[in-house]
Amino acid sequence: MELHDFLENVHCIGFDMDHTVVRYKLPKLYDLVFSCVSSYLVKYEGVDPDLLSRKVEPEYTVKGLIIDKSSGNLLKIDEHKRVVAASHGYKILSQSEIQQNYPDTLPDFDGVHSDRFFCAITYFEIILCPLMLHIVDIYELKGLSFDISKILSGVYKGFNFHFSKWGSGDFFPAIQADPEKYFYKASPVFISWLHNLRKKGVKTALITNSFAEYTKILMEYCYGEEFHDLFDVVIVQAAKPNFFLKKEPFFEMETYITSEENLVKDLKLHRKPLPIFAKGNVYNLIESLELVYQSDHPASSSSAGSSMQFCYVGDHIIGDIMAPKNETKWKTVAIVEELAHLYNSSCHSSHRHWGSFFYHNNNNNNNNTNTNTNTNTNGEKTTGDQFHTFYAKMLRTYADYCCEAVEDLVDIEHHRLDRVSLHPCVVLKPLQS
Q1: Are 217 and 179 in contact (CB under 8 A)?
Q2: How many other C-beta atoms can be found within 10 angstroms of the C-beta atom of residue 407?
Q3: For residues 44 and 154, is the Cβ–Cβ distance under 8 A?
Q4: Residue 358 gets which letter from DSSP?
Q5: Regions in the chain scoring below 70 on pLDDT
Q6: Helix (H) / strand (E) containing 314
């Protein structure tokens, strides 16, 4: 199978941690983040206390929605940067209202946060969508005026309060107290696969933006206390996408508990035991890994041409997929839990208005019963007036492969390679779906 060949020809595989090698119980995560930020807004920013009685709306926990900071509207954008679905609080905007408010494409929109738009493309950011839904609804039901920009400023402060420093706020203590509530244990099959990769001489790297302490808690719960034996190098606080864009220095940490960081002038990966590294950049990492590879494979290093081929596996479309593809031409594997929705129409039930992360179908908005099947310019089968979303297009552009979970990379005999849905990106589709 071609994916076997793809992995066989890769000499180093980098892995993201959150939502990649560590899988969250998303409803519990959403509840915790919502509680943290809403309590901050009420306590410190003067937001109406009715917010504390509101719950997370599953209908609005949709990856890929955009918040218009000028109005508080939630938007869905297609591959041509057109607004194709929108809501203001609980009010679903009609197509005529969308056309009135967003008559043109959004030419300056590039998929990342900007002065006007906030992009909910991570499972932490998603919670801002139901949060804004409730805030708009509470104030408009009571006929009260509110300043969207001020509330969003308070939201950012709330995120900083709970997430920007280890041990601050309520999020990290809750995770530390009960990791079983928020995370799935890693499968023994995947753990064995990581061990086998290293035995075969494939270098493995854990590269995460998370704090060292948070990394320790999650990885020890999911993989055991000796999780670092699964990787040739562990890098925390990597600040992706800048890890792939800038030449920031590495720092060395003696333990996963915050300690004095020592500037690393020469990244050497031959030492045993290998320390934990923080920050840094992909260029120094490549140089160091190539030295290790040449030492392990002297015959290969003497031949002409470059020696190592790299791959990165992660869930963040910008930091884990677009950045390594653009800057280093690495192979990329996108982890997209929403693939369960792509192949199982019953999974759409909780996202009735917003529909799929991958597609938008105008039937969602106008109750059109047209189910004519068409073939678009990429050879894809579509139903009705259906087209890719903006972020599905990014996956198509920057990911080589796409799968629902990292375990799919192990069990590929039970998948088929779907070359149509996100062409030219190849999707690992479970055979039983």
Answers
A1: yes
A2: 14
A3: yes
A4: S
A5: 1-2, 258-261, 299-306, 344-351, 362-386, 413-414, 432-433
A6: strand 310-314
Instruction: Give this prediction's pTM.
Output: 0.91
Contact, 342 vs 358, CB < 8 A? yes
Q: Which of 415, 325, 332, 243 is nearest to 10 (CA)?
A: 332
Distance CA 75, CA 117 (A): 10
Contact 162, 168 (CB under 8 A): yes
Is the alpha carbon torsion for 212, 215, 220, 225 positive or negative? negative
| 175/186 Cα distance (integer angstroms) | 17
> Closest by alpha carbon to 227, among 191, 198, 273?
191
Place of tokens 């015959």: 299
What phi-psi label fits residue 165: left (phi over 0), alpha (psi between -120 and 50 degrees) or beta? beta
Q: What is the dihedral of CA 402, 408, 413, 417, to 10 degrees?
A: -10
56: tokens are 């997370």
Q: What is the mean pLDDT of the chain?
A: 87
Half-sphere exposure (Cβ direction) of 65: Cα atoms closer than 13 Å: 32
Is there a contact between 352 and 338 (Cβ–Cβ < 8 Å)?
no
